Amino acid sequence: VQLQASGGGLVQAGGSLRLSCAVSGGTFSSYSMGWFRQAPGKEREFVAARRWNGATSYYADSVKGRFTISRDNAKDTVYLQMSSLKVEDTAVYYCAADSDRGYNSVGYYSSARNYLYWGQGTQVTVSS
Length: 128
Prior knowledge:
Elements: E1 2-6, E2 9-12, E3 17-24, E4 32-38, E5 45-50, E6 57-59, E7 67-72, E8 77-82, E9 91-98, H1 106-109, E10 117-118, E11 122-127
Parallel strand pairs: 2-11
Antiparallel strand pairs: 1-3, 3-8, 4-5, 4-9, 5-6, 7-8, 9-10, 9-11
């Protein structure tokens, strides 16, 4: 299974970006998908996740109301729409896939160790 993240770039504070993550080599509709980010000198942190059936989305408190995760099973792609971007959103953003469909909690989906497959990351830089 391969994950290819794209859409990062340089944007001014208050602006928007949409990240994409295309999945190949597996059954996308059976995966729950997550986004994580890692800023320089910091640990990787959870951003958002969407369950395999699309019924539930989870968000870190720091992005609630500004970011939206969505998925298109016809395109095997998950998206992260980011709005009202802040300088502190600057990081490398990673998408990840989880094949275990038995969980339904933010505690589970916010833990990076529960994801089996990872993309290579895309840089998001927000300038002031």
